[in-house]
Amino acid sequence: MLAPYTTLGLGGPALDFVRADTAEQLVSSVAEADHAARPTLLLGGGSNLVVSDAGFDGLVVQVATRGVAVSRDGEQVLVTVEAGEDWDPLVARAVAEGWSGVECMSGIPGLVGSTPIQNVGAYGQEVAQTVRCVRAYDRRTRHVVDLEARQCGFAYRTSMFKRDLSRYVVLSVTYALELAELSGPVAYQELAGRLGVGPGDRVPLADAREAVLELRRGKGMVLDPDDPDTRSAGSFFTNPVLTAEQAAELAARAPGHPHWELPDGLIKVPAAWLIEQAGFPKGYGRGPVRISTKHTLALTNPEGAGTTADLLALAREVRDGVREKFGVTLVNEPVMVGCAL
Ligand SMILES: Cc1cc2nc3c(=O)[nH]c(=O)nc-3n(C[C@H](O)[C@H](O)[C@H](O)COP(=O)(O)OP(=O)(O)OC[C@H]3O[C@@H](n4cnc5c(N)ncnc54)[C@H](O)[C@@H]3O)c2cc1C
What we know:
Blueprint: E1 14-20, H1 23-35, E2 40-43, E3 49-51, E4 56-63, E5 68-73, E6 76-82, H2 87-97, E7 99-100, E8 121-122, E9 125-126, E10 131-138, E11 143-148, H3 160-163, E12 168-179, H4 189-195, H5 205-218, E13 232-235, E14 241-242, H6 244-253, E15 260-261, E16 267-268, H7 271-277, E17 285-286, E18 289-291, E19 298-300, H8 308-326, E20 335-337
Parallel strand pairs: 1-4, 2-4, 3-20
Antiparallel strand pairs: 5-6, 6-12, 7-12, 8-9, 10-11, 10-12, 13-19, 14-16, 15-16, 17-18, 18-19
Bound molecules: flavin-adenine dinucleotide.
Residues 7, 41-49, 63, 83, 108-111, 113-115, 117-118, 120-122, 165, 168-170, 221, 223, 230, 232-234, 335 line the site of flavin-adenine dinucleotide.
């Protein structure tokens, strides 16, 4: 069963399962499966996956490569990390060593190799800001390639890797971090408030990490076996980005709604606000699955008693309710395996 490999604790069996401890094993497992035209699923920490109850009819390759290499590049440090390293210990090390640029992404579950996939981000930072290069196996050309950040197509919670999950296997990621005792400029209002500073100020790295972890724990966003609200895939819906026309339609239905202005006249709307206003409060339940009691965006399987079908039914109810009330269609953030919203 794949359920124990996912943070939601959901998902049926895999036809085959292999663990790749070296980059060579990772490449050869995928290459052989491709050669035999077998479907392949790369598995990291399973924290952004919704796997169907029927499971996966192919080969699951668990990414378990290890290693961190550090070098200097002027005032920056280049940290090259194998895909199977856990993300948060890397952030903890960066904070301890005085490497600035990832501290606000403390407490995000999962592996390093998954961070470029959806351009992981939180509290005003995203990996697109610090990724220098991604080494990947290109399944189309069958070559290992080094992709510069500008080639990765990073955007809000997506990248070219996520747009076509069947093409690249991430082998390692090189982050360029600033040698500094202070965090990057604090860009997120809630974090600035918690730290008692103004937006744009910089704070000691350890303070930024602690404040982010506290905020995240309060929302059930740090994995904790004792907190059923953390049995989730993080935010289930992305914040919708609307064109000026769509924004005008929403403004007619919901005058004064909260939003952030983006370049090019686009606006981003908090999905959590839409969900709550559409009648789905924190803790809203449907059988064994429910919205987190701490965070409207997280759908949870709190006691581990639900199924993927239960979760999808709740997700559809929320999506359809928001669409009916506001004319905005929410899109799922986690990757769906063998199922769709
Ligand atoms: C409690 C909680 C809080 C979260 N908070 C955040 C947050 O603040 N910000 C945020 O951005 N995300 C957040 N997430 C989502 C998730 O943690 C991230 O997306 C994370 O990067 C997923 O890593 P993973 O290793 O678990 O990936 P998985 O879930 O195992 O895989 C995700 C996708 O990446 C693919 N993949 C995995 N490894 C590779 C590889 N080496 N090469 C190519 N493809 C690969 C998989 O096939 C899959 O399509 C949260 C999740 C949880 C459960």
